[in-house]
Design brief:
Layout: H1 2-19, H2 23-34, E1 36-44, E2 50-52, E3 61-64, E4 69-76, E5 81-92, E6 95-100, E7 107-114, E8 118-122, E9 131-135
Antiparallel strand pairs: 1-2, 1-3, 1-9, 3-4, 4-5, 5-6, 6-7, 7-8, 8-9
Protein backbone atom coordinates (compact mmCIF):
# COMPACT_ATOMS: atom_id res chain seq x y z
CA UNK A 1 0.00 0.00 0.00
CA UNK A 2 2.84 2.40 0.83
CA UNK A 3 4.33 1.77 -2.59
CA UNK A 4 1.05 2.70 -4.27
CA UNK A 5 0.90 5.97 -2.34
CA UNK A 6 4.50 6.76 -3.30
CA UNK A 7 3.78 6.05 -6.97
CA UNK A 8 0.64 8.17 -6.83
CA UNK A 9 2.54 11.06 -5.24
CA UNK A 10 5.34 10.76 -7.80
CA UNK A 11 2.78 11.07 -10.58
CA UNK A 12 0.66 13.85 -9.05
CA UNK A 13 3.28 16.23 -7.63
CA UNK A 14 4.87 17.10 -11.02
CA UNK A 15 1.42 17.78 -12.49
CA UNK A 16 0.48 20.07 -9.61
CA UNK A 17 3.79 21.90 -9.74
CA UNK A 18 3.62 22.59 -13.48
CA UNK A 19 0.01 23.76 -13.42
CA UNK A 20 0.79 26.58 -10.98
CA UNK A 21 1.76 29.88 -12.56
CA UNK A 22 2.91 33.13 -11.06
CA UNK A 23 0.78 36.08 -12.20
CA UNK A 24 3.89 38.25 -12.36
CA UNK A 25 5.35 35.95 -15.01
CA UNK A 26 2.26 36.46 -17.19
CA UNK A 27 2.37 40.24 -16.74
CA UNK A 28 6.05 40.35 -17.72
CA UNK A 29 5.36 38.33 -20.87
CA UNK A 30 2.49 40.65 -21.78
CA UNK A 31 4.59 43.75 -21.15
CA UNK A 32 7.38 42.33 -23.28
CA UNK A 33 5.02 41.38 -26.10
CA UNK A 34 3.16 44.68 -26.15
CA UNK A 35 6.28 46.85 -26.48
CA UNK A 36 6.95 48.20 -29.96
CA UNK A 37 5.53 50.16 -32.86
CA UNK A 38 2.14 48.76 -33.91
CA UNK A 39 0.64 49.61 -37.31
CA UNK A 40 -3.15 49.26 -37.77
CA UNK A 41 -4.12 46.96 -40.65
CA UNK A 42 -7.78 46.06 -40.06
CA UNK A 43 -10.78 47.43 -38.23
CA UNK A 44 -14.35 46.44 -37.57
CA UNK A 45 -17.19 48.91 -37.09
CA UNK A 46 -20.42 47.14 -36.28
CA UNK A 47 -21.15 43.49 -36.62
CA UNK A 48 -20.59 43.10 -40.39
CA UNK A 49 -18.39 46.03 -41.43
CA UNK A 50 -14.78 44.77 -41.51
CA UNK A 51 -12.34 46.80 -43.59
CA UNK A 52 -8.64 47.16 -44.32
CA UNK A 53 -7.10 50.12 -42.49
CA UNK A 54 -6.57 53.09 -44.81
CA UNK A 55 -3.02 54.50 -44.41
CA UNK A 56 -3.48 57.20 -47.08
CA UNK A 57 -4.29 59.87 -44.44
CA UNK A 58 -0.88 59.54 -42.82
CA UNK A 59 1.31 57.17 -40.92
CA UNK A 60 -1.01 55.79 -38.28
CA UNK A 61 0.59 53.90 -35.41
CA UNK A 62 0.40 52.91 -31.77
CA UNK A 63 3.81 53.07 -30.11
CA UNK A 64 4.26 51.34 -26.77
CA UNK A 65 7.66 52.83 -26.02
CA UNK A 66 8.47 51.37 -22.60
CA UNK A 67 6.75 49.91 -19.54
CA UNK A 68 4.71 53.05 -18.82
CA UNK A 69 4.54 55.37 -21.85
CA UNK A 70 3.73 55.56 -25.52
CA UNK A 71 2.05 57.62 -28.21
CA UNK A 72 -0.38 57.13 -31.04
CA UNK A 73 -1.38 58.70 -34.32
CA UNK A 74 -4.73 57.69 -35.79
CA UNK A 75 -6.97 59.18 -38.50
CA UNK A 76 -10.71 58.54 -38.61
CA UNK A 77 -13.74 59.43 -40.73
CA UNK A 78 -12.08 60.12 -44.08
CA UNK A 79 -9.06 61.80 -42.49
CA UNK A 80 -11.13 64.49 -40.73
CA UNK A 81 -10.40 63.34 -37.19
CA UNK A 82 -6.74 63.04 -36.29
CA UNK A 83 -5.35 62.08 -32.92
CA UNK A 84 -1.65 62.35 -32.17
CA UNK A 85 -1.06 62.07 -28.47
CA UNK A 86 1.58 60.89 -26.02
CA UNK A 87 0.22 58.87 -23.10
CA UNK A 88 1.03 56.82 -20.06
CA UNK A 89 -0.47 53.38 -19.65
CA UNK A 90 -0.83 50.39 -17.41
CA UNK A 91 -1.78 46.77 -18.05
CA UNK A 92 -4.29 45.06 -15.81
CA UNK A 93 -6.42 41.92 -16.19
CA UNK A 94 -6.28 41.82 -19.98
CA UNK A 95 -6.89 45.56 -20.42
CA UNK A 96 -4.67 48.41 -21.58
CA UNK A 97 -5.52 51.51 -19.52
CA UNK A 98 -4.43 54.72 -21.30
CA UNK A 99 -4.11 58.21 -19.86
CA UNK A 100 -3.36 60.81 -22.54
CA UNK A 101 -1.06 63.65 -21.50
CA UNK A 102 -3.08 66.60 -20.24
CA UNK A 103 -6.17 64.49 -19.54
CA UNK A 104 -7.56 63.52 -16.14
CA UNK A 105 -9.55 60.41 -17.03
CA UNK A 106 -8.05 57.24 -18.45
CA UNK A 107 -9.81 54.97 -20.89
CA UNK A 108 -9.41 51.27 -21.42
CA UNK A 109 -8.98 48.95 -24.34
CA UNK A 110 -9.47 45.22 -24.03
CA UNK A 111 -6.57 43.18 -25.34
CA UNK A 112 -8.42 40.64 -27.46
CA UNK A 113 -5.28 39.14 -28.99
CA UNK A 114 -1.59 39.69 -28.34
CA UNK A 115 1.22 37.81 -30.06
CA UNK A 116 4.72 38.83 -31.10
CA UNK A 117 3.33 40.21 -34.38
CA UNK A 118 -0.38 40.96 -33.80
CA UNK A 119 -2.35 43.08 -31.35
CA UNK A 120 -6.14 43.38 -31.37
CA UNK A 121 -7.80 46.02 -29.17
CA UNK A 122 -11.49 46.60 -28.58
CA UNK A 123 -13.35 49.25 -26.61
CA UNK A 124 -16.04 47.40 -24.65
CA UNK A 125 -17.20 50.62 -22.95
CA UNK A 126 -18.13 52.52 -26.14
CA UNK A 127 -17.91 50.25 -29.18
CA UNK A 128 -19.97 47.13 -29.55
CA UNK A 129 -18.54 44.61 -32.03
CA UNK A 130 -15.67 46.96 -32.93
CA UNK A 131 -11.92 46.47 -32.86
CA UNK A 132 -8.64 47.58 -34.41
CA UNK A 133 -5.98 45.04 -35.38
CA UNK A 134 -2.31 46.04 -35.41
CA UNK A 135 0.86 44.39 -36.66
CA UNK A 136 4.53 45.08 -35.93
Amino acid sequence: MKNLIKIFLLLIIPILATSCEDEDDNRDITKTLILGNWIPFEAQQGRNNIYTWDQTCGNDYLLIADETSGEFSLHFQNCTIFNNNPFTYRLENGFLYILENGQTQEYRRQIVKLTATELTLSDPDHWQDNYIKYTK
